């Protein structure tokens, strides 16, 4: 838990400094927030390549289309915390969708 907190805190601070470099808090060339959120998803699922690909596609769907409340977070929290939080909420949505999908097939993901 301490390692996870340290990593997330470091990325929030780093993303906050990206505003000084790129004049944008969430510059498209910085993808470390998406990487961290996707790795968070992979912590809970097995290493089956099909699950990884499916997880990535579902995560990217939520990250790109930003359904509620991700869109609210993205529009209103304009700092490093907001940049990380919208991706972590997308990861949470991904987790729910994948879990429901596999449970509906009669298998348990984790």
Structure report:
By secondary structure, this protein is mainly α. It is 74% helix and 0% strand. The chain has five helices and no strands. Helix 3 crosses helix 5. The longest helix has 25 residues, at 80-104.
Topology (SSEs and partners):
Elements: H1 2-22, H2 32-42, H3 49-65, H4 70-76, H5 80-104
Helix pairs in contact: 1-5, 2-3, 2-5, 3-5, 4-5
Output the structural class.
Answer: mainly alpha
| Contiguous runs where pLDDT drops below 50 for at least 5 residues | none
Mean of residue pLDDT? 81
Q: What does the main sheet amount to?
A: none
Indicate the radius of gyration in whole angstroms: 15 Å
Quaternary state of the chains: single chain
Helical segment tally? 5
List how many beta strands DSSP finds. 0
Span between N and C termini? 19 Å
Short description:
By secondary structure, the chain is an all-alpha fold. It is about 75% helix and about 0% strand.
């Amino acid at each position: 838990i301490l390692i996870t907190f340290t990593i997330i805190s470091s990325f929030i601070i780093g993303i906050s400094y990206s505003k000084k470099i790129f004049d944008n808090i969430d510059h498209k060339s910085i993808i470390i927030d998406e990487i961290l959120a996707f790795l968070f998803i992979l912590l809970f699922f097995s290493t089956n390549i099909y699950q990884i690909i499916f997880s990535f596609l579902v995560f990217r769907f939520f990250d790109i289309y930003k359904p509620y409340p991700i869109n609210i977070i993205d529009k209103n929290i304009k700092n490093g915390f907001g940049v990380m939080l919208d991706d972590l909420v997308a990861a949470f949505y991904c987790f729910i969708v994948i879990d429901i999908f596999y449970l509906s097939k009669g298998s348990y993901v984790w």
